[in-house]
């Protein structure tokens, strides 16, 4: 079989990052041959250690190298020894913004057999996709401090939203919704308070909706949406929302779909002007690093999203199915250490 | 018994507002005589109807009258016939800002017998108080639109945070925490992204903490906090957070504590330079208005908070106990229409 060669950048990062990435790559290696894929990997030592050593988070030279890759797999970044926000903004958000990851794609799906904190809720009740805007909103870093440290200090943060940015993510969300059986799209915002940004989202939603008459749309304030996540998760199919609301509701989504150990995500540049980056939603969890306790499932599901992105849908489906089967087995037979989960899933997809 | 006279403004509002307020007042009337309280009530017809009639939401003249009152009881405002945000900003937020309600106090408490969507969670697992900032953050209305309606439109929203505003709400939260058995205070923010505002909150928390050595403090990002709300609600005692995060997590809190029909709140001006305003967290729910389906419990619990605020702690405890007993009875014997719930609770507190 002729192999298609894919340039893959790997950023294992901090804490449990390297452990879960190792399992993700194990599964990728197992599924690749029979899918006609060959990955040309380059690993980047970005994260806390490099910052301590050099003060660098994501140097321009590395960013330039990343641009030459086709896709990126990221583990997790962050460490208590580094001031909060340094790696998050200097590395993670810098990559999202520089590589124009305007869609932050986060499925919220409860696999059969997986425990959820919600009473009486089963796999068929939780199956949604959150399309989170990834390059604007309150994440721009715009803002500042006046009279710092005095009783008259003022600290501001600005949410910047553009027609350009909102339209492209809303359009993407309609595409996702149109391709799903229920064809339902919910805008989540807070337009009764954040009136300027909210009205822009509402107006764009209405405009783009004309091109997708088959998709039913509705709107929820973000506060109400969090209630429905726990009281009626079934009401959601596809959600489109801003960067900060998306951050919040996808963590809540992870919680109801069996925990952060299972939540995958893609930082997607649908225009393909730069590589997209796939990463588990969880952080670096330094408290459990190196103990074989981390669940690599979120990373493995992120690998499935990566495969989808490069057009290897069949391989993606096989990885998802293997994860689903493995989760059912773990529900029945008990949890396993990190590497054993990777082994089991790799075995299922190989050959 | 000599009566203390209290000037009470009542704003029934829209939808189910008038129905639930009627029950709140029924309970207030029932508990007052034996508590040595007499309320001098003035009702204000603010809301959708008045806006349709006159275009007014909260006219200056009414605001001036409200300032002369000691406390305010509000039902709910908002109607689909009024553009989203008009009454919310023109009436509710205007009152909160003008009357300097810098503490938005929202207990999240699961009463015994009440159903929660969380599996295996009982009343003792959910008992926290959210101290939400009420007069700044992303709620200032600061922001604007450039090139509206063009492909180059930019919409901004600014979160404004001051040392003055943050310190007073953080201090209040420490007071609340110090008075509770667990004496634990969690700051909820997003300081790895909203660095200017987040750092201000963190710094103020650390400073004020020195005055309350008995209170244990910690910090959670808002996204992680929503996960813990559903996976481990017990970890929370008192939370202090900004206006928008507080809005979101208290709706989620209401959901886990038995639903929005039970969630009470106080818009409090602790300096007492203007009247405080008590209101159920829920909205006007026009879809069920006038059918006797609304649960007045949130309003009745808001009346208990109002009683606490005016120094009638005994009366407040009696109302809370009556609500608790009534909820247990409803759990056992089934739900009742709006007025019957008010009747039953009024009966329990009277005499
Ligand atoms: C680490 C942090 C900056 C990041 C975010 O807020 O986007 C994370 O919470 C996420 O959801 O990927
Ligand atoms: C109606 C709305 C403006 C309000 C808010 O966002 O504060 C409501 O959601 C609340 O929580 O009281």
What would you say about this model in short?
2 copies of one chain form a homodimer. Chain A has 351 residues and is of the alpha/beta class. Chain A has helices spanning 17-31, 48-54, 60-67, 86-98, 163-178, 195-209, 222-231, 243-256, 297-309, 313-333, 338-349, and strands at 4-13, 37-43, 71-76, 103-109, 127-133, 143-146, 154-162, 184-189, 216-221, 238-241, 264-268, 276-280.
Describe the structure.
Two copies of one chain form a homodimer. With 351 residues, chain A is an alpha/beta fold. Chain A folds into two domains: 1-107 and 259-351, Isopropylmalate Dehydrogenase, CATH 3.40.718.10; 116-257, Isopropylmalate Dehydrogenase (3-Layer(aba) Sandwich). The first copy, chain A, is built from eleven helices and twelve strands. In chain A, β11 and β12 (276-280) form a beta hairpin. The longest helix of chain A has 21 residues, at 313-333. The first copy, chain A, is globular, with a radius of gyration of 20 Å. The model of chain A has no long low-confidence stretch (mean pLDDT 97). The interface between A and B is large, with 65 and 65 residues. β7 (154-162) of chain A pairs antiparallel with β7 of chain B. Bound molecules: 3-isopropylmalic acid (2 copies). One 3-isopropylmalic acid sits between chains B (88, 92-93, 247, 281) and A (192-193, 223).
